[in-house]
Amino acid sequence: MTTTKRVIEKEEWDRKLAEVKVNKEDLNRLVMDYLVIEGYKDAAEKFSIESGLKPNVDLESIQERMHIRSAVHAGDIEAAMERVNDLNPDILDTNPQLYFHLQQQRLIELIRANRVNEALEFASEELASRGEEQPEFLSEFERTMALLAFDANASGLANPVSDLLQYAKRQQTAQELNAAILESQSQERDPKLPSLLKMLVWSQQQLDERMTFPQLEIL
Amino acid sequence: MPRLPSPNTPAQQGRSNSSSDSTPGSSSFTEALRRIIGNSNFDALQTQTFILSPEPESEPSWSRGLESSHLRDLFVLEPSHIRDIRRLQREEQSNIDMFSAGLSNWPWAGRGGDESEGEDDNAAEEAAVSYSLSIPMCHSPARIPAYLMRTNYLRHLHRSHRDSTRPLPTMRNSQTPSTLDRGSKSSKNKKIKVDDENVSTRTCEADCELPTALNRRDRAVHLEISADGLGVVFVGQHKSDRDAATVRANRPIPPQTGIFYFEMEVVSKGVEGFIGLGVCAKDVELARLPGWEPDSYGYHGDDGQKFSSRSEKGKEYGPKYTKGDVIGCGVNFVDRSIFYTKNGKHLGTAFENIIKRPLYPCIGMRSTGEEAKINFGQRKFKFDISRYVDEEMLRIQESIKQLPLTTLENPTVSMNRLVFSYLVHLGFVDTAKAFVKRMDQDSQLAGCKILATEQDGAASSEHTLLPETELDMERRKSIRLAIQDGEIDRALAMLNEHYPDLSTSNSLIRFRVLSLKFVQLVSIACMAGSSPQSDDDIDMNDDTAVNTWQLSSKPTKKGPAVYADVVAFGQNLQAEYGEDARPEVQQGLLEIFSLLAYNDPKKSIMGHLFDSSHRMKVAEDLNSAILESDGRPYRSSLEQIYTQSEVVLDECIKEGVGKAAFVNLERDILSM
Asked: How many CA atoms lie within 13 A of B426 on its CB side?
């Protein structure tokens, strides 16, 4: 039974959209959740005042998480790891993948700073053995080492591992660490906002198989 | 009848009041109303609508939610009422939860089938005669098996019913609520004939109804169906395979269920025990066992084999089954597979990639005396289907979680942009500033030490708060706060100053803001009236005998003045909007003027108009209207994403995307 895909015109679609009732408080909660989990303490405080929404956690608990995160963002991985251990040593002890990614980030920062000797020393002492023990980390380790072969400060297509030098890599590491801290505090690890986007992507994929409709693109 | 504000009683009471009093109005409030809308309109109002009814003793019953008896009664009312009820039901989700929780002990949640429906001629006739009986029975959520309660099936029922009861645009403006005659007339138009499947499958209602019994009109001659439609016995003489006989259920399985499950208990193995359980399409020959034909699937008791093709050779599948065994069949629309259970034990997937045609549960037999009972959830299942459904739901939710956001170059940047634009949209200027400050810190880090990509650069410039943006946000915020604090005059003044287009236009939002002001005046009048003060009388009502009305019994010096305010403002509103044909305006006028009919408006059925949440809602909508008048989107990007997801999911469910039955925005994302 093959049928041609049904088409929904924009007009009809807009009518359907207009019919959806949105509870503004739900959206506010979604944003508050994002601010808290992502560690925007000041913004969360202001948001609580402006939206009249009480945060469901003590905003003070965000502070330390923020410091740690800023340290990662600033490339000071050593300081970040120290702070995490002060907070709760279990976090790194029980999470080998996170530990590896932090060490990897440390190596990246050394290479970025052109401290080549230190980088090599650190790599052989801290990372190489770990890479041998856990082969799933090995290829990542090798990619990181490949950074040494390229000029760290010259961007360009020629460098196949330049993604490691980008700020997004620090963000990614910081996020992983942030999630682990949250988990250790029995809070939700991930904000719900990305889930909403995933839900949108997923549902549009599902419906696209059956009908043609005005899709919403996320920028 | 439910205790909806009824059209008769208020008028009677209004009359009895006026006959016993020397003055026609029973209070200064009603007098005020009379002045606002004029005498003739006032009289018309009194006889036509409920607004002059005294305060109800208690909440009207329909606001308590899902009691099917009430629903049934209400279905003879206007479609607009039905919409209200549906809305209330949606809003009172907690009631639904309590409702389903209370019933979850029963596999068939809610009222048992107190009459067999559909295939029973008498029942079908009854249903055809009385709309008020047939529709609610089909749609009362009380008739859904418990394992479906957490899926979107229920929501789909509500929606499709809402769609089908949506009045035509022409009806919408012309009819005023609640006369019984009109109610039943319009309901007749929507009567569905339950006994004619070909007709009913075309309607949305029938599309999503569940199979509930065996269809005695859709059986092979050798089979006899019990009175309740759940038992089947082979009564003929059997000789060969040609004597095989199958009966189909009364309806196909709606894919909207996501997963559908039913069980069969073998009562007697008869001579041979050639019994098969499965599903098949509508046009599959009935003189065959399930699975012997294309578009038919079956699991047979005599050899434990599964069948799904024309060839009569089965494939090894499960154990044999016979008298006393309970066999279950589950159709999984998520991966389009079928599994079976025996005495509560899952036997594994039997069929994959099942056809996309509507499938009917079916039982087949082939020798004399074979007898079985089918269970669509009316009785407790042997197999823990709820758990199976929950597991499937978790699996799907997890798969969505794992979905990479590959379309986004940098998810963090996108997320931040989304939040930032939301803050700008709402005019949360302080939050936006704090947020931007952090963005700046982050992007400075990104900029000076790290190879910034083009994307990062673009993102950071978007996160700067331009002075004009900030000013605009501040203004919108002040207006919002003024409205939230009930300082409507201040809000109106600011609106006039900064957004004159909007405040002079004939917009709905302007009307709503003005309505807020009226409500506020009433509130002031109430407070003035309730403070014990002098005996100064109000000139509008000399009748001190009516002492239930606080304003007249305990007037203050300020009383007449605030009172005059209410009247004057109300008259202005009436003059400006009385002829406005927009239903929202007419409804709005009715609501705010009805406040005057209660001796304590704040405790009346319209009391929510005084709530801060009501003002908040208006403030939010005003904010959106301001943005729209300025050429910006009415909805924030976040809200757009939400609404789009809702509609897409809705359409998925309607289209029968099995997975969509287990995904729920509100539950999975917004509930925290």
From this structure: 25
Give residue-wise pLDDT tens across range B299-358. 999 999 999 976 668 899 999 999 999 999 999 999 999 999 999 999 999 999 999 899
Other CB atoms within 10 Å distance of the CB of residue A29: 20
pLDDT tens-digit series, residues A44-98: 999 999 988 888 787 877 888 888 988 998 999 999 999 999 988 999 999 988 9
Residue among A43, A112, A211 minimizing CB distance to B434: A43
Long-range CB contacts (within 8 A, 24+) of B238-243: B238/B271, B238/B272, B238/B366, B238/B367, B238/B368, B241/B312, B241/B366, B242/B287, B243/B287, B243/B366, B243/B367
Q: Which two tokens stand for residue B185?
A: 């007339």
The torsion of the CA quartet B588, B590, B596, B602, rounded to 10 degrees, works out to: -50
Q: What stretch of H or E contains B331?
A: strand B326-332
B214-396 topology per CATH: Jelly Rolls (2.60.120)
Give me the residue spans of the domains in chain B. Answer: 59-207, 214-396, 404-465, 507-621, 635-672
Helix residue ranges per DSSP H, B402-507: 411-426, 429-449, 454-462, 467-484, 488-498, 500-504
Do B645 and A213 lie within an 8 Å CB cutoff? no
* Residues pairing with B372 in the sheet: B232, B266
Predicted pLDDT of residue B596: 81
> Inter-chain contact B642–A20, Cβ cutoff 8 Å?
yes
Strands B231-234 and B276-280: unpaired
Q: What angle do CA A119, A121, A125 make, to 5 degrees?
A: 120
Can you state the angle between helices B411-426 and A192-208, rounded to 10 degrees? Answer: 100
Record: contact B672-A202, CB cut-off 8 A: no
The pLDDT, as a whole number, for residue B42 is 61
What's the pLDDT score for residue B547? 31
- Indicate the DSSP class of residue A75: T
pLDDT band at B33 (very low <50, low <70, confident <90, very high): low
CA distance A124 to A87: 28
CA distance A180 to chain B (A): 17
Residues of B whose CB is below 8 A from A212 = none
- DSSP secondary structure code for residue B55 in this structure: P
How far is residue A10's CA from residue B397's CA, in Å, rounded to a whole number?
29
Kindly report the nearest CA distance between residue B442 and chain A, in angstroms: 7
Per 3-state DSSP, what percentage of chain B is helix, strand, and coil (rounded to 5)?
A: 50, 10, 35
What is the sign, positive or negative, of the torsion defined by CA atoms of B362, B364, B368, B372? negative
Q: Quick one: tokens of B635? A: 């909805």
- ipTM (interface pTM): 0.75
Kindly report the nearest CA distance between residue A121 and chain B, in angstroms. 23
Question: For the ranges B64-73, B139-148, B185-194, which has the lowest average pLDDT?
Answer: B64-73
The tokens describing A214, both together, are: 């005005």
Question: Cα Rg for chain B, rounded, in angstroms?
Answer: 32
d(CA B209, CA B336): 19
The pLDDT tens digits for B460-476 are 445 567 888 889 999 99
Amino acid identity of residue B391, one-letter, is E
Which residue is closest to B670 within chain A, CA to CA?
A26
Whole-angstrom distance, CA of residue A87 vs CA of residue A97: 19
Distance, in angstroms, between B184 CA and closest chain A CA? 27
Question: Is B403 close to A198, i.e. CB distance below 8 A?
Answer: yes
Distance between CA atoms of residues B354 and B192, nearest Å: 31
- Per-residue pLDDT at B154: 75
Strand B245-249 relative to strand B337-342: parallel, antiparallel, unpaired? unpaired
Report the 3 state secondary structure along A174-195: HHHHHHHHHHHCCCCCCCHHHH
Chain B residues whose CB is inside 8 A of the A166 CB are 450-451, 453
Give the whole-angstrom CA distance, residue B526 versus residue B562.
9
* Residue of B146 and B32 predicted with greater confidence: B146
Contact between B91 and B66 (Cβ < 8 Å): no
